[in-house]
């Protein structure tokens, strides 16, 4: 990237990421609200979002449809769709794992109840046998 661009400087982005996304003194670099996707989860994995957001803001300012601007929009869309797919997959597998753990707990509870019923039946059977032996004698 060219020197002197106000909207993208690696050091400033790194500083902002380290400061938890506080961009109050750097409005030239971050014209986006904190509720934007990249600012919700602050970390190195969101650097591509930050750079693409900055490039998108520049491409919208100049409003020329060039191959570069189209490539930037396409990259942003691809990253966004990829994260949506990953988030939905993680949510799906999380729900599946929680359902499996609930089923496992249910099976364990059923096994405990079955053991208690077996014990009660054995005790009842022993009592019946004992009382029958008392009646005979």
From TrEMBL:
It comes from the Eukaryota. Keywords: Membrane, Transmembrane, Transmembrane helix. The chain crosses the membrane at residues 74-94. This is 331_t:CDS:1. It comes from Diversispora eburnea.
